[in-house]
Q: What sequence folds into this?
């Protein structure tokens, strides 16, 4: 439908500038939705990694509780928890195959750590772990699990900061990692 304007000219449809503005608004909306989708995906990945970290801590707890070298100890004679302590980035050596052969408690602890660290690295993206004796309660082990997290890198989190709710100086998350800290009592 032709519409006559005051100047006497006829306008048919929309102008080029109006269509470009409409396309710009549509493009900004699509980019916003894509950003929301990407953020949602990154947070879902981080939630999956955190769930896996909790499962890994439970796995270590079960391994420690089933070690006969620790089961024979009493409250008077506390368990030798240093058997299960490991540093960040440390790779324990496999000394014996305790699934096939009979092992001592110490050999089982080394085998458990070797197997557990391999599982952490294969389950979590860039996964690493640190196990340390709690300074506030020596009968507990602190299990600090970390994984590479682009969201934490972008937001500046996980850059050598202490993990929330940690009472330990040992519980610092390395730069570029998101971390989860669990205390276990064998």
A:
């Amino acid at each position: 439908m032709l519409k006559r304007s005051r100047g006497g000219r006829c306008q048919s449809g929309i102008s080029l500038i109006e269509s470009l503005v409409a396309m710009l608004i549509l493009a900004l909306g699509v980019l916003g939705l894509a950003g929301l989708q990407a953020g949602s995906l990154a947070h879902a990945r981080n939630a999956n990694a955190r769930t896996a970290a909790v499962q890994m801590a439970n796995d270590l707890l079960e391994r420690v509780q089933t070690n006969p070298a620790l089961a024979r100890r009493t409250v008077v004679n506390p368990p030798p928890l240093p058997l299960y302590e490991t540093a960040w980035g440390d790779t324990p050596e496999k000394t014996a195959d305790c699934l096939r052969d009979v092992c001592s408690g110490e050999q089982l602890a080394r085998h458990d750590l070797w197997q557990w660290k391999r599982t952490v690295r294969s389950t979590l993206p860039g996964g690493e772990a640190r196990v340390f004796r709690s300074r506030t309660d020596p009968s507990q082990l602190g299990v600090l699990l970390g994984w590479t997290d682009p969201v934490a890198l972008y937001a500046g989190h996980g850059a050598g900061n202490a993990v929330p709710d940690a009472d330990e100086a040992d519980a610092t998350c390395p730069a570029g990692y998101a971390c989860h800290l669990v205390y276990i009592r064998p």
